[in-house]
Amino acid sequence: MIGKEKARDRFNVTEDADLGYRLARDGFHSGMIGPPTWEEAPIDFRAWRRQRVRWIKGHLQTWLVLMRDPFRTEREMRFRGFASMQLLLGGGIAASFAHGPLAFVILAALLTPYRLLEPIDVILALTGYTVAMLASLSASALSRNWSHLMAAVTMPFYWPLSSLAALIAFAELLVRPHRWTKTAHGVSPRTRYPA
Fold it and tell me: What does the domain layout of the chain look like in residue ranges?
C-alpha cells in the first residue's frame, strides 16, 4: 500500500507522471501497453499548445517534487531508476527548452555569414534531427500507417514550438501552478475504432 505521504498529488497536472514516479519510489514497476493506441491527438495548434503546456508544466512539477530531496529519491528509486528518471523526465524537460534556441542558432549559422558554429557542429545537429525524422518515417512505414508521414516531415517545426510551450509552462508554473487545461476529445473526424 502506498503511504499517505506518497499518495497521488491532486494538484499535479500530469497525474500519470506523478503517480508513476511515486509508484517507482515504492519499488513498483510498470510496463508498456503494446500498440495500437486509439488516443486522439489535438487537431489544431491551440489545442496542441494547451496540451503541451499542461504536460511540460506537470513534468516540471513532478521533477521538482522528486528533486526536493534527491538523495532520498535516489535511495528509494535506486541508482538505475533515478538515472532513468533524470534522462527521461529531466532530459525531456531540458529538450523542450533547448529545441527553439538550438533551431535558431542552426538557422543563423546556415543563413548568415557569421560563424556561430563550426561546420561539424551544424552537421552533428542536422544529423541528429535527420535521424529522428527517419526513425519516425520508418515507424510509419513499418506500421503501414501513412497518416503519420506528415508528422515526420513537419518535425523541424514541432521541436521549436515545444520551446514556446515550455516557456508558457514555466510561466504558468510560477503564476498558476495548478491550473488544469483539459484537452478536448471527440473532435477529430477520424474513424471510430472498435472496442
Answer: 12-30+43-175
